[in-house]
Structure formats: structure tokens, C-alpha cells
Write a structure and sequence with these properties.
This protein is α/β, with parallel strands linked by helices. It has ten helices and 13 strands. The protein is globular. The structure holds acetyl coenzyme *A.
């Protein structure tokens, strides 16, 4: 017997306020046409004053637990990916733990910017497979609007706020070997693949922090260079995930990518030879919600019935650091 981990519930939450490109064009020198043609974004959600990352995370978590049919008291691990925590400390995950009325188990944040959900899922998957947790809440939540320079048109148009969560459950199963074609025949999370390369931190970063400037700072980015690295790193990590499971891109039913830019998504799937219809895209309505983007898109595709039991689902993301990663799931 071996421990497997399976996603048994998903949830998402978006703040009420919708800010479209026309509204932004009143604030900075830009147009709906420029933003949509370069990025694929039409609108984004922005958290209300006083609405915190933990509030968004809590709402998404409640929905994930509800869809799993699992009581909060069964959760023994909370891993929350965020770059916009409520406070420098304590971890936002502990605020969610408190809001859920829990006092047992472990709760902590993971900082991997836009790859935060994939990193958090990998951490939780390893905890579950090692037998150190049984029911994990894995969350990606951001109030990215709080670290944007609203006078910098090159960055402020790209991001939005939101949260997504999944419930990961461990169970014992017969060890599954390869099928007749050499493909991993297991169910649940098949494998996770994480990478980082700190040499590129000056291409995408925040120009502040408690130890350096004692301020929160704002996002700074060299968009063109980030774009180039994103396409090559994402293609490589997807190939790595497929190879590790004896699979090919044609085996994938759904790609649920980090929603950074429509052109990054198109270039990545073109490189893999995948049809664009297999890519779950929420970018137009959500913009880039950093760690929240993958679980927000996953929730949508599960709820509208696109993702079905037995489907092979690929999650991928890349973000500041650089950090990047992928996860293959047999749903
Ligand atoms: N409206 C109008 N003009 C703009 C805007 C705007 N909102 N933003 C920038 N411009 C101008 C620039 O000032 C520049 O003008 P100039 O030629 O007079 O100097 C011109 O547009 C071209 O700027 P570039 O940055 O070269 O434009 P590019 O075609 O590369 O598109 C973009 C910019 C959309 C940021 C693109 O590079 C990109 O998507 N990069 C990926 C970055 C990304 O998605 N990051 C998210 C975080 S990382 C991640 O999640 C993977």
C-alpha cells in the first residue's frame, strides 16, 4: 500500500468590485485596446478597503470544504501561497485557521509569488504522502492591488485580487505501476515539479520589504524579459512533468495555467502542440491574480463540468524569483 493524495473539493472567491480597462484609462495613460491586445485582459477585481487577503482566503476555503463535504475540524494542515499577507507576521494561514475555528494542526504561508499555489500544493502533497497530514487546505490568495504602483501603466493594468482553495485528502491505495503504454496509472496528484533561479530577481520584484526599506514597496517588472523566460521555463517544466509520468502532451485533457498573459499561454501551448481549447483561461475577467490564478481557474473548470473524473489535468505557473513549477493530476 502507498499513500496517495487527491483533490476532493475546490472553492474560489473574488472581491465584488470590477475595474475594467476603461476605468484604468482614466487613471493612467493607457487604452482598453492596448491592454486587451497585449495581454488578453478586459477587467479585474479589486478588494474593498479593509478587505484582507485572509478574508478572501477564508471565503474560498469555506467553499472548498463545502464542495468536498468535509468539516473544517478535519483539516490538519493549511498551506497558503501569498505575496500579499495581511501582516509581515503572523502567517495569513494562521488567520484563516482562526477564522475556520481551528486550533489543531499546522498552518503556514509559502512565498513563491505567482507560483505560490503550485509550491503550496507540492508542499501539502508531500506532507500527505509522508503521512504527516491527512486533510490539507491549500490556498492561493492575493490582494495584489495593494503592492501596485498605480501610476505605472506598465504594471498596474496587469494584476487583480482573488483567492482559490482546494482540499487535499490522503488515502491508502495499492501502489499503481505503469499501464500497458508505460504511463503512470495512479489517481490523484501524480507528481509535482518545482524550480527557482534567483539570478533573475531584478526582472520582477517589489522595491521594498521589512529588512531592506522597512516599507511594503511596489511591483517592478521588465515585462519583455519576463515574457521570454516564462515561455521557455514553462515549456521545460511541462515536458519534465510529462516525462516523469511516461506521458505525452496529447494525454493532457486540461491545462490550468497561471493567468499572466494570453500571449504567454498561447506561446506555451503552441510549443507543446496542444489545442487552445484544452486551456482553461480566466485572464480576461480576473487578470493576473498571482498565487490565486491557478486555483481560481481550476475551480471554474471543475464547477462548470469541464474537468471530469479520470481526466489528466496539468497545472503550471511561473513568477518572481524566478520560481516556476508544474503538477500533473489524474482527476
Ligand atoms: N498602455 C499603453 N502603453 C503601455 C502600457 C499601457 N498600459 N504599458 C506599457 N506601455 C508602453 C511602454 O511604455 C512602451 O512604450 P515605448 O515604446 O514608447 O517605450 C510600449 O508600450 C512597449 O512596452 P513593452 O513593455 O515593450 O510592451 P510589450 O509588448 O512587451 O508588452 C507586457 C508589455 C504586456 C507587460 C508584456 O511584456 C508581458 O506580458 N510580459 C510578461 C510579464 C507578465 O505577465 N508578468 C506578470 C508577472 S510574471 C508572471 O506571472 C509570469
Amino acid at each position: 500500500m502507498t499513500m496517495t493524495s487527491q483533490i476532493v473539493g475546490c472553492g474560489a472567491y473574488l472581491p465584488e468590485r470590477v475595474v475594467d480597462n476603461d476605468e484604468l484609462s482614466k487613471r493612467v495613460d493607457t487604452t482598453n485596446e492596448w491592454i486587451f491586445s497585449r495581454t488578453g485582459i478586459r477587467e479585474r477585481r479589486i478588494a474593498a478597503d479593509g478587505e484582507l487577503t485572509s478574508d478572501l482566503a477564508f471565503e474560498a476555503s469555506k467553499k472548498a470544504l463545502e464542495s468536498a463535504g468535509i468539516g473544517a475540524d478535519e483539516v490538519d494542515l493549511i498551506v497558503l501561497g501569498t505575496t500579499t499577507p495581511d501582516k509581515t507576521f503572523p502567517a495569513t494561514a494562521t488567520a484563516v485557521q482562526r477564522m475556520l475555528g481551528l486550533k489543531n494542526g499546522a498552518a503556514f504561508d509559502v512565498q513563491a509569488v505567482c507560483s505560490g499555489f503550485i509550491y503550496s500544493l507540492a508542499v501539502a502533497d508531500n506532507f500527505v504522502k509522508a503521512g504527516q497530514a491527512r486533510t490539507a487546505l491549500v490556498i492561493g490568495a492575493e490582494t495584489f492591488s495593494r503592492i501596485l504602483d498605480w501610476e505605472d501603466r506598465a504594471t498596474c493594468v496587469l494584476f487583480g485580487d482573488g483567492a482559490g482553495a482546494v482540499v487535499l485528502r490522503g488515502s491508502e491505495a495499492e501502489a499503481a505501476g505503469p499501464d500497458g503504454h508505460g504511463r503512470n496509472s495512479a489517481r490523484g496528484i501524480l507528481s509535482t515539479h518545482l524550480h527557482s533561479d534567483g539570478r533573475y530577481s531584478d526582472l520582477l520584484y517589489v522595491d521594498g520589504g521589512p529588512s531592506s526599506t522597512r516599507t511594503v514597496g511596489h511591483v517592478r517588472m521588465r515585462g519583455r524579459e519576463v515574457f521570454r523566460h516564462a515561455v521557455s521555463n514553462l515549456s521545460a517544466v511541462i515536458e519534465e512533468a510529462l516525462d516523469a509520468n511516461g506521458m505525452q502532451s496529447s494525454d493532457i485533457d486540461w491545462v490550468v495555467p497561471h493567468q499572466a498573459n494570453k500571449r504567454i499561454l498561447d506561446a506555451t501551448v503552441r510549443k507543446l502542440g496542444l489545442p487552445p481549447e484544452r486551456v482553461v483561461t480566466t485572464l480576461e475577467r480576473h487578470a493576473n491574480t498571482s498565487a490565486a490564478s491557478v486555483p481560481l481557474a481550476l475551480d471554474e473548470a471543475v464547477r462548470d463540468g469541464r474537468v471530469q473524473p479520470g481526466n489528466l489535468v496539468l497545472l503550471e505557473a511561473m513568477g518572481g524569483g524566478f520560481t516556476w513549477g508544474a503538477c500533473l493530476i489524474r482527476w
